[in-house]
Specification:
Chain A is an alpha/beta fold. Chain A contains 11 helices and 13 strands. Chain A folds into 2 domains: 225 residues, 3-Layer(aba) Sandwich (Rossmann fold); 64 residues, Alpha-Beta Plaits, CATH 3.30.70. In chain A, the strands form 3 sheets. Chain A has a 6-stranded mixed beta sheet with strand order 5-6-7-3-8-9, sandwiched between helices. Classes of the chains: A alpha/beta (311), B mainly alpha (260). The structure holds adenosine-5'-diphosphate and magnesium ion.
């Protein structure tokens, strides 16, 4: 029986913890070969969603189909075909890098020889070959994350679930992880990832949903979302705190599609930033700094929720 | 899908790998502990007890009376010990349970896999205990070998329910309560050191209700050759029921915790 190209399908998917609704009736579909993202701030319900997708948390209501199967009745079969990178590492820090892959491979019932072959290949892929015999405990956060990614690939999964793959890593370690994930994507591995970094979502996701308070606020490719919910350019102005509010009032005269007054900055959404900056100067305003930049997903999020992603 | 047993064995293999780090220390204590107890209580105290006649003990030396009781008590301690801190550690600190739960293993497989490991450790501990008993001359016939499964069953009758409860815990506070208010009183008053008939009449039914009393009676009956068929069924049946209840309830508590 040929399997449909829809690998995951969710309708009205809901997760409640007692009276609290963490995931509030979300709909989405995942297609084979795509990189799909959940972008949202802390507490949006991303991990709760990922745990339902990982078949370690039964949905409270709604429909969920993964690889054509029911996650409650066939959880074990589905999990055999998933790779999971949880938000918090679950590595055995007292064992070595290699032993971690051995233990995990055994959970999937893989023969020792096969685990050995794949371990060599995967450690090479995440650039950990030289640490294979080292204990995990002293490894840096970035190396542990890469090991978790290698481990999640031991069963050659159909879908790879990554919950905040680079949260807590320094910028350099983050770029190494991005690079590896990008390579996986190029090989056609189907990815689902959550993040609260707009640059991560922009770089890695073919398609994403913006999530807030358990609900999906918008869906599309990064480009589509920016086109739909923001302007081509943004003018960021910073004023002396004492004149911040007065400036905001005066700026209303500048023909912008939208203005956001943040605590420390004022954002003007306009098609042409340089033109708008000229209008600002014409009004007699003298910002401490000004910056014209392209719109990002951060702007989309601000537009949709009125808040910033890292709030 | 792989059968339950196969999945539980995968979890067992995790624990075996884990045990490769710590086995030396555990072997040391499973040899030393019975030597200390049998030496101090069995031989030391026993010399005094035997001087005053051993009719209450069924006419055998105190050492011979005490040894199978200690065997059952040691199995209890091992069962409780293995199913308290290591379980909290697996779900809170080391998080190897979360790792296993993301694989094809189901919560029940993870639970039963650990119980298999506990069974294996009980086999080792109780086997070593019997060997030390024999070395102390506290063994009357080769039939004592049947006390090995009896002691293991006693250990499991504590291991399974304690583990079913331990997985619900978020801190180790409850454990010291169990150690102090369950394990130690049972150890002292379930017939290990003196026949339960020495207890005040009102306290005896309490002793009879505890799994340890049944374990002690079973191991002692086998070791002294005094066990009747009826008693054998009673004690074994009781311990099996408690163990199975623990295994069934634990499947639920594991699911609640690992599949929240
Ligand atoms: N097991 C749980 N019990 C109760 N509340 C929970 C549980 N897991 C998550 N929550 C709550 O659900 C909300 C969403 O959490 P989570 O899915 O972890 O969000 P995110 O991953 O987007 O930060 C949070 O308010 C969190 O406190
Ligand atoms: Mg999260």
């Amino acid at each position: 029986m040929p399997e449909s190209d829809i690998l995951v399908s969710a309708r009205g998917l809901t997760k409640r913890f007692g009276d609290f609704t963490a995931v509030d009736g979300i709909d989405f579909q995942l297609r084979r070969g795509e990189a799909f993202g959940f972008l949202g701030p802390n507490g949006a319900g991303k991990s709760s969603t990922m745990r339902m997708l990982g078949c370690v948390s039964p949905p409270s209501s709604g429909e969920l189909t993964i690889l054509g199967l029911d996650p409650v009745a066939d959880g074990s079969v589905i999990r055999a075909r998933l790779g999971v990178v949880p938000q918090e590492d679950t590595l055995d820090v007292e064992l070595t890098v290699r032993e971690n892959l051995l233990i995990y491979g055994r959970y999937f019932g893989l023969p020792r020889q096969l685990i050995k072959e794949r371990t060599a290949r995967l450690l090479d892929f995440v650039q950990l070959s030289d640490r294979a015999s080292d204990q995990v405990e002293p490894l840096s956060g970035g190396l542990k994350r890469r090991l978790t990614i290698a481990r999640s690939l031991i069963n050659e999964p159909d879908i790879l679930l990554l919950d905040e793959p680079t949260t807590g890593l320094d910028p350099q370690a983050r770029h190494v992880v991005w690079d590896r994930l990008f390579r996986l994507k190029r090989r056609g591995v189907t990815l689902i990832l959550t993040t609260h970094y707009m640059d991560e979502a922009e770089q890695l996701c073919d398609r994403l949903v913006v999530m807030d308070h358990g609900k999906i606020a918008a869906e599309g490719s990064p480009r589509e979302l920016i086109d739909a919910y923001s302007t081509r350019e943004v003018l960021e102005l910073r004023f002396d705190p004492s004149s911040h509010e007065q400036a905001a009032e005066k700026l209303a005269a500048v023909p912008a599609e939208r203005m956001e007054v943040l605590a420390d900055r004022i954002l003007l959404y306009i098609p042409n930033g340089d033109g708008a900056l000229a209008s600002v100067h014409d009004l007699g305003l003298d910002p401490l700094t000004s910056l014209v930049r392209r719109s990002t997903l951060e702007d989309v999020f601000l537009r949709l929720t009125g808040r910033r992603l890292d709030d | 899908m792989a059968a339950s047993g196969v999945l539980a064995v995968r979890e067992l293999r995790f624990w075996l790998t884990d045990y490769r780090r710590t086995w030396r220390g555990t072997i040391y204590s499973s040899v030393i502990n019975p030597m200390l107890y049998l030496g101090a209580m069995g031989v030391g105290l026993g010399t005094l007890v035997d001087k005053h006649g051993t009719a209450h003990l069924g006419g055998v030396s105190y050492l011979t009376f005490l040894a199978p009781g200690l065997l059952a008590a040691a199995a209890m301690q091992s069962g409780i010990g293995q199913c308290s801190y290591p379980i909290l550690g697996s779900v809170k600190w080391n998080r190897n349970y979360q790792a296993a739960a993301a694989s094809p293993l189901r919560p029940g497989d993870i639970f039963h896999g650990h119980q298999l490991f506990v069974t294996m450790r009980l086999l080792m501990n109780c086997g070593i205990f019997l060997a030390v008993m024999a070395a102390f001359g506290a063994v009357r016939s080769p039939a004592v070998i049947f006390a090995l499964p009896a002691a293991m069953l006693t250990g499991l009758a504590f291991a399974a329910p304690v583990e079913a409860w331990a997985i619900t815990q978020n801190s180790d506070r409850g454990f010291s309560v169990v150690f102090r208010f369950v394990m130690i009183p049972l150890f002292l008053f379930s017939g290990t050191f003196f026949p339960v008939t020495q207890l005040p009449a009102w306290l005896r039914p309490v002793a009879y209700a505890t799994p340890l009393w049944h374990g002690v009676a079973l191991c002692r009956g086998i070791s002294l050759g005094t066990l009747t068929v009826g008693d054998a069924f009673l004690h074994t049946g009781y311990l099996v029921v408690v163990t199975v209840a623990g295994l069934v309830v634990g499947q639920r508590t594991y699911r609640r915790r690992l599949h929240a």
